[in-house]
């Protein structure tokens, strides 16, 4: 960190990154060959990248956006355990449920990404079955406070699912679908001796799961006793120290102690520091320089320099730049200007505002 020389950053290849996401997105709705269980999540990373780059309007047309909205609504599925979104038209189920058809079980992570994708596409949510969504959340919560990914004891249950349940409740502005008092002790139990959080209790701390834990705690409703100050001063210091230590020599963050830097952890750790009010501890010039080197020459951002790009790492890199833009010690251009991010629900502030004003629906004031 020199205080004399300023670092000259290369351009952020906005057009190439937008093009990479557009190409990935175009294959999604109509592809009959690609049997991928996570296509709605992939759509979210593509649409989210275009949103962060402020390129959605310019790179896509009304017809395409309408087409994607319709495709997402086709995954809206209702049944005995409530309503949510299923991962894709071709999802292979891990189990059968009584009255969803074989391929139709809604999925917690998919439901979170579908709500965000529809918000990016400025859907009016007139088709959303809100009581069904609350019922779905209720059907997913386990006795230990965590959540299954699918209702009726289906799929994994770990802190990522807890985060999605909290984010959905927050966007709905209705917490009656989940038992927050039972969920919080589960999150607390995922905390490790290092100050990070693991995927479930007694697991090693990771950047991604630490973000999920902290964001859930900070999203918790005002009626919750931990709202505002979920960590003690000592815990907060310890978590900040662990997160800062994850920024390595390359400028990128690694997700676990002693691992290689990876672009996605620049978001998971960087957003966690933002939530803890410690964003000034990130060395932003080194971070930007690492992410610049992760850019693929034909567009898209990879997990590390020299690797192939994908929409997941492209989105999370852009989101990290949004929170931690290159500082005054760098010489850069407007190519690095990314739309501001809502670090709690992980979408642009503009999209978060759309979600919060359209997903709750019309409330009858008593
Ligand atoms: Zn990664």
Structural summary, described in words:
This protein is mainly α. The protein has a single domain, classed as Glycosyltransferase, CATH 1.50.10. Helices cover 45% and strands 4% of the residues. It has 14 helices and 6 strands. A two-stranded parallel sheet has the order 1-4. Strands 2-3 form a two-stranded antiparallel ribbon. A two-stranded antiparallel sheet has the order 5-6. β2 and β3 form a beta hairpin. The chain is globular and about 60 Å long. The termini are far apart. Zinc ion (ZN) binds next to loops. The site of zinc ion has 4 residues, from loops.
Question: What is the helical fraction, as a range of percent?
Answer: 40-55%
The radius of gyration computed from the alpha-carbon positions, rounded to a whole number of angstroms, is 20 Å
SSE order in H/E notation?
EHHHHEEHHHHHHHHHEEEH
Number of domains: 1
Distance between the termini: 58 Å
Cofactor: Zn(2+)
GO cellular component, one term: CAAX-protein geranylgeranyltransferase complex
Domain Prenyltransferase alpha-alpha toroid: 13-334
Keywords: Metal-binding, Prenyltransferase, Repeat, Transferase, Zinc
Task: Annotate the secondary structure layout.
Blueprint: E1 7-8, H1 14-26, H2 39-52, H3 56-59, H4 62-73, E2 76-79, E3 82-85, H5 108-120, H6 130-140, H7 159-172, H8 180-189, H9 207-219, H10 233-245, H11 263-275, H12 284-293, H13 311-323, E4 330-331, E5 341-342, E6 347-348, H14 349-358
Parallel strand pairs: 1-4
Antiparallel strand pairs: 2-3, 5-6
Bound molecules: zinc ion.
């Amino acid at each position: 960190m020199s205080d004399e020389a300023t670092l000259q950053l290369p351009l952020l290849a906005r057009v190439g990154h937008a093009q990479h996401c557009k190409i990935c997105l175009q294959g999604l709705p109509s592809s009959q060959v690609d049997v991928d269980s996570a296509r709605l999540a992939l759509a979210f990373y593509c649409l989210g990248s275009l949103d962060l780059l402020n390129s959605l309007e310019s790179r896509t047309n009304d017809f395409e956006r309408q087409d994607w909205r319709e495709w997402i609504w086709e995954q809206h599925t209702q049944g005995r355990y409530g309503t949510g979104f299923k991962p894709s038209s071709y999802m292979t189920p891990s189990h059968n449920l009584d009255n969803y058809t074989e391929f139709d079980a809604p999925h917690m992570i998919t439901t979170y990404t579908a709500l965000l994708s529809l918000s990016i596409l400025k859907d009016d949510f007139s088709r959303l079955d809100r009581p069904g969504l609350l019922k779905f959340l209720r059907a997913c919560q386990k006795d230990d406070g965590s959540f299954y990914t699918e209702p009726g004891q289906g799929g994994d249950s770990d802190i990522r699912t807890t985060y999605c349940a909290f984010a959905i409740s927050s966007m709905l502005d209705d917490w009656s679908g989940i038992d927050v008092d039972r969920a919080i002790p589960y999150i607390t139990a995922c905390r490790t001796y290092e100050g990070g959080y693991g995927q479930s209790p007694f697991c090693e701390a990771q950047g991604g799961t630490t973000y999920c834990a902290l964001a859930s705690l900070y999203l918790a409703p005002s009626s919750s006793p931990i709202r505002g100050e979920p960590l003690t001063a000592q815990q907060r210091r310890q978590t900040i120290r662990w997160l800062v230590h994850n920024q390595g020599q390359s400028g990128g963050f690694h997700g676990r102690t002693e691992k290689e830097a990876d672009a996605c952890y620049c978001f998971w750790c960087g957003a966690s520091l933002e939530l803890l009010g410690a964003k000034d501890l990130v060395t932003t010039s080194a971070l930007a320089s690492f992410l610049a080197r992760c850019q693929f020459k034909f567009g898209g951002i990879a997990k590390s320099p020299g690797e192939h790009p994908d929409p997941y790492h492209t989105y999370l890199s852009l989101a990290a730049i949004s929170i931690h833009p290159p500082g005054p010690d760098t010489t850069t251009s407007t190519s690095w200007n990314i739309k501001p991010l809502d670090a709690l629900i992980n979408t642009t502030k503009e999209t978060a505002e759309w979600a919060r004003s359209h997903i709750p629906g019309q409330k009858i004031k008593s």
